[in-house]
Amino acid sequence: xxxxxxxxxxxxxxxxxxxxxxxxxxxxxxxxxxxxxxxxxxxxxxxxxxxxxxxxxxxxxxxxxxxxxxxxxxxxxxxxxxxxxxxxxxxxxxxxxxxxxxxxxxxxxxxxxxxxxxxxxxxxxxxxxxxxxxxxxxxxxxxxxxxxxxxxxxxxxxxxxxxxxxxxxxxxxxxxxxxxxxxxxxxxxxxxxxxxxxxxxxxxxxxxxxxxxxxxxxxxxxxxxxxxxxxxxxxxxxxxxxxxxxxxxxxxxxxxxxxxxxxxxxxxxxxxxxxxxxxxxxxxxxxxxxxxxxxxxxxxxxxxxxxxxxxxxxxxxxxxxxxxxxxxxxxxxxxxxxxxxxxxxxxxx
Length: 349
Prior knowledge:
Layout: H1 12-23, H2 30-55, H3 59-84, H4 92-105, H5 110-123, E1 138-139, H6 140-144, H7 148-158, H8 160-175, H9 185-209, H10 211-235, H11 252-259, E2 262-263, H12 267-272, H13 279-284, H14 293-299, E3 308-309, E4 322-324, E5 329-331, H15 333-337
Helix pairs in contact: 2-3, 3-4, 3-10, 4-9, 5-9, 8-10, 9-10
């Protein structure tokens, strides 16, 4: 097996030591969680009110508040995300209640999304278990074995315009509003309950300010938040040196440390994104609340070996479209054309 940047994690004693170090940060603090709810929901409500007030004079004046609200939507989603992992509160019921509330505000069904996200954590970096809660990824040989129309479909999916501009519309209008047949009863009820919650909130707010004004504020706020969220998720698993291996060589610890990026953001963006840039830390221990990720990273030496990516260097992720299994790296469509042709593979999904 290839041992990458963390050779020590292939030793059982070192892995046990690392897990013990991480366990110290896996205990939610009720005071910290309540404070985060307050410093997120209160600014969100005030931003909403400010956007509505200035919109009476000019919609252009409302745009800065809508952008700010979009940033707060990301922060609300991070709280939702922690609740799905059971890491925001120690109490399961508290996580479920706040998961539902934040899910309604971000148009995301709690149990349905949690099911897909748990699958993502369990299979991230595993070439034989793609397709659950992840970005559609093909190997070079798989892509070469496709028909013209299937290639076109994949190229459209991986096109930045489609993924980051049309993707948010697809998510909050379709993907999170409908439920797949394979979902269980709880997931079905989660989708229907969230849809009902969204309608009730929309009716209540519309009663106060009018349906048109509600749409003019809510939809662009949500769009900005989702577009940013899609980018953050994308860049955290699409970077030079990312981990992808077949099932027989897959290792959870390696997949976490080498399959999730260290997206080094400025302090203000770390606040809005709930420290999710420490994505390798989160994948290694999803039970760590977002407000402890920074402290954990700074106090556990092994975690600091991750190569950081910033706002500018992270843009390179836009070029990565395929996995070159022979060379063990992500490549662009242009680079793929220059490679010698190998054996074509049947697409497994």
